[in-house]
Write a structure and sequence with these properties.
Elements (H helix, E strand, L loop, with lengths): L3 E6 L6 H12 L6 E5 L1 H16 L15 E10 L2 E11 L11 H13 L2 E7 L13 H32 L8 E6 L1 H4 L7 H9 L9 E6 L8 H4 L9 H45 L7 H41 L4 E5 L2 E3 L11
Parallel strand pairs: 1-4, 1-5, 5-6, 6-7
Antiparallel strand pairs: 2-3, 3-4, 7-8, 8-9
Helix pairs in contact: 4-6, 8-9
Length: 360
């Protein structure tokens, strides 16, 4: 069973399946010490898709759309220099299921269960929806009209269907709302249509309910390659920002996990120190006796002190391992922070590792 679960919400054609492919394409060979591993069955499936992506041209090189009745669970493990960080399940399904609730009740229930148990929610927004209007337009009135077309397109063809599922996610995580991560796919197509800051404005307008108090929201524009659509989709595969979305989910959940581990190990170490103190007091007591000194008791206490010190050292070693892994993920996100947006309580802010990280 995986350590955690992530759920992606997106309509048909929004790029959910291609994101899984791109994620593995980039990470199976490694990125600055990080690698992504999976089961043999999943690896074979994704490797076949990777071969087609590399060898074919046109839209046939991409995976076919997921059918209405299909619900696939992919299990991955993120590693750093061969040291496991965290495993996670990622579910994929046909985007039409979000529309056709009654046509496939079984898959629909699996999606809802996945939403309820996820520690991060990913909203896939098809970048093609933002390819409206003129590229690099200079006419102010035309720019205004084009911006409204792009906003309305996202509202009608994405937000209208997705927002109710976001509300379900919020309701099922009332105690502590996990991060919500917008993944804008096909960024290579829409980049020339959008003005600076327009993508964020569209998201805040179309999904206004998540940009409020108590929310952590991210927005990442991704692509399988800046030039992949060139010459009838025969351009090079060079994933852009693909690793960032799932790194964000991993970071938040792994931080929570590390805080829990530190709390447990601190409790164990405090108990060990109390035992050491009691044993040392017993040794001192025996050594201070004028006669009938219990040397057997002294030896037993000395062995207990040695064992507890070894336990403390092992706990500190374990904590240092988790600290190193958490810092590695945090540093990678800091390194990549220019390529994603973060919103805290609805306001854009710079990504910085939270203060809790330094307490581990």
């Amino acid at each position: 069973m995986a350590d955690t679960r992530f759920t992606g919400l997106g309509l048909s054609g929004s790029g959910k399946t291609c994101y899984v492919l791109g994620m593995y394409y980039e990470m199976c060979v490694g990125l600055r010490g990080f690698t992504l591993t999976t089961t043999n069955q999943t690896a074979s499936k994704l490797e076949n898709w990777m071969d087609e992506l590399d060898e074919k041209s046109g839209k046939e090189r991409f995976p076919a759309g997921t059918s209405l009745t299909e619900f696939t669970n992919y299990s991955f493990m993120l590693n750093y220099h061969k040291e496991p960080i965290m495993s996670f399940d990622w579910n994929d399904y046909g985007g039409r299921t979000l529309h056709s609730r009654e046509d496939n009740q079984e898959v629909f229930e699996k999606i809802n269960d996945s939403i309820d148990t996820s520690t991060a929610l990913y909203i896939f927004v098809d970048g093609d929806l933002m390819c409206k209007g003129e590229k690099h337009c200079q006419n102010k009135e035309q720019i205004k009209q084009d911006r409204m077309k792009r906003l309305n397109n996202v509202k009608r063809k994405c937000a209208r269907s997705i927002n109710s599922y976001i509300s379900s996610f919020v309701s099922s995580h009332e105690e502590a709302l996990p991060p919500i991560i917008f993944v804008i796919t096909k960024a290579d197509l829409c980049k020339d249509y959008l003005e600076d800051g327009e993508m964020e404005d569209i998201l805040k307008e179309a999904f206004s309910s998540v940009f409020g108090k108590g929310t952590i929201v991210y927005a990442v524009a991704v692509s399988l390659g800046n030039n992949i659509s060139d010459d009838n989709y025969s351009g090079e595969v060079e994933p852009v920002n693909i690793h960032i979305p799932f790194f964000l989910g991993i970071f938040h959940e792994f931080l929570n996990r590390c805080l829990g581990i530190k709390k447990y190990l601190d409790r164990e170490n405090n108990h060990a120190r109390e035992t050491i103190s009691q044993c040392q007091s017993a040794i001192d007591h025996e050594n201070n006796r004028w006669f009938f000194t219990d040397y057997n008791r002294i030896n037993q206490c000395a062995k207990q002190i040695q064992a507890e010190n070894l336990n403390i050292a092992e706990n500190e070693k374990q904590l240092q391992k988790y600290r190193t892994l958490l810092n590695a993920v945090a540093n990678e996100l800091v390194r990549s922070s220019a390529f994603f947006k973060m919103f805290l309580d609805g306001k854009e802010t710079e990504f910085t590792p939270p203060s809790e990280l330094h307490s581990i």
